[in-house]
Specification:
Blueprint (H helix, E strand, L loop, with lengths): L12 H12 L3 H7 L1 E2 L7 H8 L6 E3 L5 H14 L5 E4 L18 H5 L5 H18 L4 E2 L24 H17 L5 E5 L14 E2 L4 H17 L4 E4 L2 E2 L1 H7 L14 H11 L5 E4 L5 H4 L4 H11 L4 E2 L4 H13 L5 H17 L23 H14 L1 E5 L13 E7 L5 H15 L2 E4 L5 H5 L4 H7 L2 E6 L33 E5 L14 E4 L5 H11 L23
Helix pairs in contact: 1-14, 6-7, 6-15, 7-8, 9-10, 12-13, 15-19, 16-19
Length: about 575
């Protein structure tokens, strides 16, 4: 039985009566629909009405778009929904997680890299996310990420995390949550039971947290306990197995990895019983292979709720998943008790946010509220956080600061293949030229050029300095975020063969572990983000306008002592 009077709901008798009466008045189809939070693909009213709302959905999430479009879409949905909706967004690094014109404050790892100011900056990150998210109608941010970046090879946690220190992660997450609480938004702490231990991505397979019970308790367990004790309303379950606890709670548990989203041992035994979480559990996105490959989808859809999740995130096909859920109820996979518990928690969160007491026309604010999106104050927070985060990992050859008199001719290279490359390259090129450097952009050699022969002397007499911009962004559905070189037989001026002759600097904008691929480069800098504020801050450090202030929230040497030299 769900207790709505206690943490995290803290509902009044009148609130609880609304929850109970609303559930009692629902048809079976309405009850099933409330379990779903699909992703929206169109903002046309016809789509909103006939594809989403007719299924009585409990929540929705849209990818970033111009703020006025997002707000208008959310307003239509709330005004035409019988029951108020939970509207979600990945507000991990700024308001740009829902609005294209929102503020990018910086990745969570960038915030942690500000060291003594990390908690204060995490609060400002949360405040910017909360203000800009609320302005477009979001009430359910899928953040903070409380994974620990324990494995430098992990391709998906990385700069999305606050790093590897449980104390830093917990304190920053609590500060972010405080800002969200003040804006009356329900955080969704993710990704339970914790990603970042192994080197796989749950988008591509069921990930496995291999920690022992004792190790989990003093790391992830302490983080989740701290946020639960602080009243977190919702937790996102990942497609992540935790064999130590699953076996301890159920000795007959299968040896193969079973994701938390389908594990009663982790959802009920660990999260509910041991940690005392009374709030809403939502699955991570269910089109991920970490979920879809675990078992037949027809079986997995209702089993996720039967196992202890309360809400089902995204779909392969919405109508098909709805039919799977309903059939699971009719065949007994999903019991009346579990259905009632899930609905009680879903409506309990909505009541805790006061959505039931608002006129449906007032849930999403007026267009005037959009003035906070991308506002000057948030931009200033981003500039300050960037200035405090840039980290000098090493400057073995004392190249810094650079000077257009000392090294006037610069070869600028960018590594990575992302849409942001053009913006990053253009911005950094402009900064260099304005300071008086003569710039050449690296152009990949053709096979014919390489076969004609590469001249060492020609290269080292052409350039006084080489700067690499590592722009390999953190992205899902990739097995690695390592460096790939444009080279043939080891030849080509892309790979840093020339470090003994030409001063060379590596500026990592996205992945703080690139030093493992460029150990020969003696001057290495971590930035953790690639937004314009960070580019300006990094350039200012390079030319000596301001000192390096950043602190590494992880081991940039990847446990390899030779990288330090």
């Amino acid at each position: 039985m769900v207790n709505l009077k206690i943490k995290p709901f803290n509902l009044s008798d009148a609130d609880i009566q609304w929850v109970r009466q609303t559930i009692a008045g629902m048809s079976l189809d309405e009850k099933i629909g409330q379990l779903f939070c699909p992703i929206g693909f169109d903002k046309n009213p016809g789509y909103l009405e006939h594809v989403l709302l007719r299924h009585h959905i409990g929540g929705v999430m849209y990818r970033p778009a111009p703020s006025d479009e997002v707000q208008g879409c959310h307003r239509y949905l709330q005004e035409h929904s019988k029951i108020p909706l939970l509207i979600s967004a990945n507000l991990e690094a700024g308001g740009d997680g829902v609005a294209e014109d929102g503020t990018r404050v910086g990745s969570q790892m960038q915030i942690a890299a500000t060291g003594k100011d990390a908690v204060a900056n995490a609060y400002k990150l949360g405040k910017a996310c909360a203000r800009e998210g609320s302005a477009v109608g979001v009430n359910w941010p899928f953040a903070p990420v409380v994974d620990l970046d324990m494995n430098w090879r992990n391709p998906i946690t990385n700069v999305r995390t606050y790093g590897a220190d449980p104390d830093v992660v917990l304190n920053c997450a609590l500060a972010y949550k405080k800002a969200m609480d003040e804006q009356n938004m329900a955080v969704s702490v993710k990704h339970f039971p914790g990603d970042g231990v192994n080197e796989t991505d749950q988008h591509l397979q069921t990930s496995v947290n291999t920690l022992s019970i004792a190790a989990w308790d003093r790391t992830y367990g302490r983080i989740y306990q701290g946020l639960i004790d602080d009243g977190a309303l919702t937790v996102m379950a990942g497609h992540i197995a935790l064999p130590a606890y699953q076996k301890a709670i159920n000795p007959d548990h299968p040896e193969r990895p079973v994701p938390a989203t389908l594990s009663p041992e982790l959802l009920s035994g660990l999260l509910r019983d041991k940690l005392g979480f009374n709030g809403l559990i939502v699955t991570d996105a269910t089109p991920m292979a970490g979920f879809t490959s675990a078992m037949s989808r027809r079986r997995a859809v209702p089993l996720s709720i039967a196992a202890g999740c309360d809400m089902f995130l995204f779909n392969v096909d919405l109508e098909e998943d709805l039919s799977y859920m309903k059939q699971g109820y009719l065949d007994g996979t999903l019991s009346d008790q579990r259905l009632d518990e899930a609905l009680t928690r879903i409506l309990g969160v909505k009541a805790a946010l006061g959505l039931h007491n608002q006129d449906k026309h007032d849930i999403v604010p007026d267009p005037e509220a959009l003035s906070v999106v991308g506002c000057v104050e948030h931009a200033e927070w981003a500039e300050t956080a960037a200035d405090q985060a840039v980290t000098l990992v090493k400057d073995r050859d004392n190249i810094l600061p650079i000077d257009p008199v000392k090294t006037p001719r610069v070869l600028l290279q960018i590594l990575g293949d992302f849409p942001s490359n053009t913006r990053v390259m253009d911005t950094f090129e402009t900064l260099l030229i304005e300071r008086g450097f003569a710039l050449t952009r690296y152009v990949p050699e053709t096979p014919e050029m390489i076969m004609q022969g590469m001249s060492v002397e020609k290269f080292i007499t052409a350039y006084d300095l080489v700067i690499y911009l590592g722009n390999i962004e953190n992205a899902s559905n990739k097995t690695t975020n390592r460096i790939n070189w444009h080279t043939m037989f080891g030849l080509g001026n892309n790979i840093p063969w020339f470090v003994g002759d030409v001063p060379t600097i590596f500026v990592s904008l996205a992945n703080p572990y690139h030093l493992v691929d460029v150990p020969m480069i003696g001057t290495y800098i971590n930035c953790y983000s690639n937004h314009d504020a960070m580019l300006r801050a990094a350039f200012g450090k390079l030319v000596g306008d301001s000192p390096f202030k950043g602190f590494c929230p992880i081991d940039p040497f990847c446990g390899k002592d030779y990288l330090k030299f």
